[in-house]
Design brief:
By secondary structure, this protein is an alpha+beta fold. The protein contains ten helices and twelve strands.
Length: 261
C-alpha cells in the first residue's frame, strides 16, 4: 500500500517569484507567520494540497519615501511597534495577543485571516481603516492597490497581499477598545479614529466578520450612527447585544480623545 503523499511545498526566494508561483491562487494555501493556519492543520481542519511559504520571499520590511510608509506583508506584528510606523497602528500592534504571537504573526496574515476568527476581528483593522491604509495585492486580474476597507469587504480569494501603504502625514488620532482578559487578549470591540485636513475617518474592528469604515459617524460625528455601518455578531468573546451597547460608547471615547489631542 502506497503512503499518502504530503502537500506540494513552494518556497519562493523573491516577491516576484512568490507572485508567479501564486498565480491566481487556485488550490494554494499561503503561509505567513502560521499563527492561524498551524492550529487548523494540527486539529485536522485544514489539509493543504499546495502550500506557499513566504518566509524567504523578501516581503518583510518597513520603508518610508515619497511621503508614504510601505510595510511588507511578511512584516511581523512585533516590528510595527516602532517610530517609523504611524503611532495609531503601532499602539494597536503592541496589544495583539502576546509577545510570542506578535513575533510570528504578520500584518499580511492579519489582514487575510478568514472572516469570523475572534482573534482576527480585533487586531489591526480599525487602525488601518482610520489611517486610510491601502493594500497592494496580486492574483486574479493582476496587481492592484485599493483601500483596506474595500479589500476586506471584497472577495479576497485569489489575492496575495504584497504590502500595505499608509500616507506619512500629520493626523490627530484617537482610540478606544475593550478586550477580554485572556492569554491572547481577544477584543470585544476596537475603535480607531483619525482626522487629517478636517476629514474624519473611523475604523471599527472586533465587532463583525471584518473591520469596517463607519462613514455614518464620519458624516455626523454621532456615535449612535455606528450601528448603521456594522452589524455586531455573537461569538465566544461577547454577544452581539453586548457589542451593540458598548460600541457607541467606545466611539464616543475615541472621538473625545481625538478632540482633546
Amino acid at each position: 500500500m502506497l503512503a499518502a503523499m504530503g502537500p506540494q511545498v513552494l518556497i519562493p526566494q523573491s516577491a516576484e517569484e512568490a507572485a508567479t508561483l501564486y498565480g491566481d491562487g487556485e488550490g494554494t494555501t499561503v503561509f505567513a507567520g502560521g499563527t492561524i493556519l498551524m492550529p487548523e492543520i494540527a486539529n485536522g481542519r485544514l489539509k493543504p494540497d499546495r502550500a506557499l511559504l513566504l518566509h524567504r520571499s523578501g516581503l518583510a520590511g518597513i520603508e518610508s519615501n515619497d511621503g508614504v510608509v510601505r510595510i511588507g506583508a511578511m512584516t511581523p506584528v512585533a516590528a510595527l511597534a516602532v517610530p517609523a510606523v504611524p503611532a495609531l497602528l503601532a499602539e494597536y500592534a503592541s496589544q495583539v495577543a502576546d509577545y510570542e504571537v506578535r513575533q510570528s504573526a504578520t500584518i499580511g496574515g492579519n489582514i487575510c485571516a478568514p472572516p469570523g476568527r475572534e482573534a482576527q476581528r480585533g487586531d489591526l483593522g480599525a487602525a488601518l481603516v482610520a489611517l486610510g491604509a491601502r493594500v497592494r495585492s496580486t492574483g486574479k486580474g493582476g496587481e492592484r492597490t485599493e483601500p483596506v476597507e474595500e479589500f476586506l469587504a471584497g472577495d479576497r480569494t485569489g489575492r496575495l497581499v504584497l504590502e500595505i501603504e499608509i500616507d506619512d502625514a500629520e493626523r490627530r488620532t484617537g482610540a478606544a477598545g475593550m478586550r477580554r482578559r485572556h492569554a491572547h487578549s481577544y477584543a470585544v470591540a476596537n475603535v480607531a479614529v483619525a482626522e487629517r485636513g478636517g476629514e474624519l475617518r473611523v475604523g471599527i474592528a472586533g465587532v463583525g466578520p471584518t473591520a469596517v469604515r463607519s462613514r455614518s459617524v464620519e458624516a455626523s460625528r454621532d456615535p449612535a450612527d455606528v450601528l448603521r455601518d456594522v452589524e455586531p455578531v455573537d461569538d465566544a468573546v461577547a454577544s452581539a447585544e453586548y457589542r451593540r451597547r458598548v460600541l457607541p460608547l467606545l466611539v464616543r471615547q475615541a472621538i473625545d480623545r481625538l478632540e482633546n489631542a
